[in-house]
């Protein structure tokens, strides 16, 4: 069998049926990346773009794709000014060092930021290509906060912290666009986790092409149409070395879902692509507007427009069980329940919900030792 594009001998087989030579495969993958950006028209010429690197497979390919695209000399040159950033914590110092070397090969500078900056909201840019110097105490405060919550909540909260830091540093660097390199596998896991923990209404932001929750900075996922199979071929053809594997906390909802998805994918090749395509169809993404936003994840707190939210489900079951205890007659109509719900926010299990926090963040909040949260956040959450 020969390459389906140029008829030279095949070297790459995709989805067990499509044959390519290295050359056509690389052209095709580069095209997918550019088509994704072109189709969605988010970039203006010479835009400052911040690129978040984790060092993983997706990140390694994105780095190479960007380097290739901005090095072109023809009309296809990608006209952006890239700034690279890597977020790390004490458990992955070696990884951060490897990542600096990875960027060095391309002659790119990278800002390496310790996650603990979240605690004091000090978003000063560190010196490029060096690990940020942090006192033992500051690191410990961050660790204590993360350790004060159960693994599933910690995984979820960490994603929100990283998103928050990326947005803040993008503002520092005058970037209105951020590229992140989630692979379809990561996105499939995030989608199912989101649904399971009551972030269904945020699926489009967390899994779709563009997260525009922030007024000034858009987060874009330009390689979300490139499958893991393709990423792995890309890595081996260009002999790249990823420096990191995903580190979801074990014994958590996310680790179970991750195992479930990857085992299913083994036998049913369409699993992940089906899950990701479904994400595109769920939820209605609105342009960011003036509504109140969650103080942790910036999602809209516009509850009236959500007809069937996890929050309401929790409240319904709570009200019904309370009613039973008081031996009152059961609800007769759904409209009764809706009416009661609308007037019943005060008795909610989550006192801060809809005022400061979305449902997902309220759940996390109820499982965190709140005194360990960053001072500024504590203050904002207790303001009247
Ligand atoms: Zn070919
Ligand atoms: Zn939230």
TrEMBL record:
Its GO CC terms are: cytosol
Matching Pfam families, A to Z? CTU2
Compartments annotated for it: namely:
Cytoplasm
Set out the biological process GO terms recorded for this chain's protein. Answer: protein urmylation; tRNA wobble position uridine thiolation
What keywords appear on the UniProt entry? Cytoplasm, tRNA processing
A Gene Ontology molecular function term of the record: tRNA binding
* InterPro entries associated with the record: CTU2, Rossmann-like_a/b/a_fold
Main subcellular localization, coarse class? Answer: cytoplasm
Gene3D superfamilies xref list? HUPs (3.40.50.620)
Question: At the top level of its lineage, which domain of life is listed?
Answer: Eukaryota
Pathway, per record: tRNA modification; 5-methoxycarbonylmethyl-2-thiouridine-tRNA biosynthesis
Question: What family is reported?
Answer: Belongs to the CTU2/NCS2 family.
Q: What function does this protein fulfil? A: Plays a central role in 2-thiolation of mcm(5)S(2)U at tRNA wobble positions of tRNA(Lys), tRNA(Glu) and tRNA(Gln). May act by forming a heterodimer with NCS6/CTU1 that ligates sulfur from thiocarboxylated URM1 onto the uridine of tRNAs at wobble position.
Return the protein name: Cytoplasmic tRNA 2-thiolation protein 2
């Amino acid at each position: 069998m020969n390459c389906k594009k140029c008829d030279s001998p095949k070297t790459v087989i995709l989805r067990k049926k499509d044959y390519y030579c290295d050359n056509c495969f690389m052209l095709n993958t580069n095209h997918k990346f550019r088509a994704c950006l072109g189709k969605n028209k988010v970039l203006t010429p010479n835009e400052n773009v911040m690129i978040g690197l984790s060092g993983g497979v997706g990140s390694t390919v994105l780095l190479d794709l960007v380097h290739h695209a901005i090095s072109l000399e023809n009309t296809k040159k990608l006209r952006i000014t890239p700034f690279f950033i890597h977020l790390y914590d004490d458990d992955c110092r070696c990884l951060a060092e490897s990542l600096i070397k990875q960027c060095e090969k391309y002659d790119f500078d990278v800002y390496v930021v310790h996650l603990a900056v979240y605690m004091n909201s000090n978003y000063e840019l560190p010196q490029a290509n060096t690990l940020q110097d942090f006192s033992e105490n500051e690191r410990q405060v961050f660790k204590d906060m993360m350790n004060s919550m159960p693994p599933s909540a910690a995984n979820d909260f960490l994603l929100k912290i990283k998103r928050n830091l990326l947005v803040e540093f993008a503002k520092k660097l005058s970037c209105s666009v951020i590229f992140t390199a989630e692979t379809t596998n990561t996105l499939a896991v995030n989608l199912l986790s989101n649904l399971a923990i009551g972030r269904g209404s945020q699926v489009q932001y967390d899994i779709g092409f563009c997260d525009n929750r922030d007024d000034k900075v858009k987060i874009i996922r330009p390689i979300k149409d490139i499958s893991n199979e393709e990423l792995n071929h890309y890595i081996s053809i260009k002999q790249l070395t990823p420096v990191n594997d995903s580190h979801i906390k074990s014994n958590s909802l996310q680790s179970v879902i991750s195992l479930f998805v990857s085992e299913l994918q083994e036998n049913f090749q369409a699993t992940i692509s089906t899950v990701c395509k479904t994400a595109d169809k769920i939820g209605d993404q609105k342009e960011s507007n003036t509504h109140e936003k969650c103080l942790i994840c910036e999602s809209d707190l516009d509850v009236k427009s959500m007809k069937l939210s996890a929050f309401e489900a929790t409240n319904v079951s709570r009200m019904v069980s309370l009613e039973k205890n008081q031996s009152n007659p059961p609800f007769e109509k759904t409209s009764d329940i809706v009416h009661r719900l609308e007037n019943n926010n005060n008795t909610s299990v989550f006192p801060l919900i809809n005022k400061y926090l979305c449902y997902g963040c309220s759940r996390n909040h109820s499982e965190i030792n709140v005194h360990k949260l960053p001072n500024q956040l504590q203050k904002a959450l207790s303001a009247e």
